[in-house]
Amino acid sequence: xxxxxxxxxxxxxxxxxxxxxxxxxxxxxxxxxxxxxxxxxxxxxxxxxxxxxxxxxxxxxxxxxxxxxxxxxxxxxxxxxxxxxxxxxxxxxxxxxxxxxxxxxxxxxxxxxxxxxxxxxxxxxxxxxxxxxxxxxxxxxxxxxxxxxxxxxxxxxxxxxxxxxxxxxxxxxxxxxxxxxxxxxxxxxxxxxxxxxxxxxxxxxxxxxxxxxxxxxxxxxxxxxxxxxxxxxxxxxxxxxxxxxxxxxxxxxxxxxxxxxxxxxxxxxxxxxxxxxxxxxxxxxxxxxxxxxxxxxxxxxxxxxxxxxxxxxxxxxxxxxxxxxxxxxxxxxxxxxxxxxxxxxxxxxxxxxxxxxxxxxxxxxxxxxxxxxxxxxxxxxxxxxxxxxxxxx
Length: 393
Hints:
Blueprint: E1 5-6, E2 11-12, H1 30-44, H2 47-61, H3 76-90, H4 93-109, H5 125-134, H6 138-145, H7 147-151, E3 153-154, E4 159-160, E5 170-171, H8 178-192, H9 195-209, E6 224-225, H10 244-257, H11 263-277, H12 298-311, H13 316-329, E7 331-333, E8 336-338, H14 361-375
Antiparallel strand pairs: 1-2, 3-4, 5-6, 7-8
Helix pairs in contact: 1-2, 1-3, 1-14, 2-3, 2-4, 3-4, 3-5, 5-6, 5-8, 6-8, 8-9, 8-10, 10-11, 12-13, 12-14, 13-14
């Protein structure tokens, strides 16, 4: 909380302690900090956290109408999710009214196809559909996914989509690829009782499943095809964004929707097998596992391990390994405890600690608090569920 800035109409959090500009986004700004504060309030019963969340919601509410990006993790859709979470958790009617305004903004910006040229979950229609669904606007959610039937590309095993209009590589995973779109189609299809959307989701999932390179026991799919050329992108990842931990969340959702189909829980098990055997969270080689955060690091794998602990009873040991690693890598200074990620191609290699959900303290704290609740036999639910993470059954 020491990183918070008083911006006149509430509290806001910059990307890191050195940054001057604050951002309201779910990915790296204030909207991503609010859910962690609410989890802390529930766990510690300390009203300072609830007060900080309410004040943070005010700063987000103040910029809902002027923030140009509309995406789930980058814009107004994610702000709506965070504001609705504060409203539901604390009974904060001002936050609820601001969430309604955010939905109004999204409706006004919809051009009949979307909000931008992105198809994926982080920025594009898929994430906005999930935000609308989480906030109770099923009509907007259905309009957001309508474009996918028209834009699907048939493959040998199913269908796939561009990451954005004109982009050449086809990405496969939850953050920017086919599985993020699959998640949105399946979630909206279930809520709206739309078999056509669910069938399209299953076709997208089939394409990704056919790309598995790990054999019958595991599950590992390349980052992209053709491989996106960038010196920092490895062909295979294990985190939430471009890897097996995120793939498993999509398969978990499909296993909840298609409870009579044993293929989906089997794929969740295969993802789990690959993760446990991968070497994560050890830093096996330069660049292999340098991130502690929720998006592409240890905290994102911990989220799945906690899901396993609740649903299957077999995730506890690996969850403990992940928590121990996060504890070892925590750094303490005058500002408190934080985590620094690592980039071996940069000098200096230790990156500045960040505050938000994606690569920062808020995302890590949120998963550590959930692990603490589970191990003490308390409610495993998050205070504010994220719309791309299925609740445990």
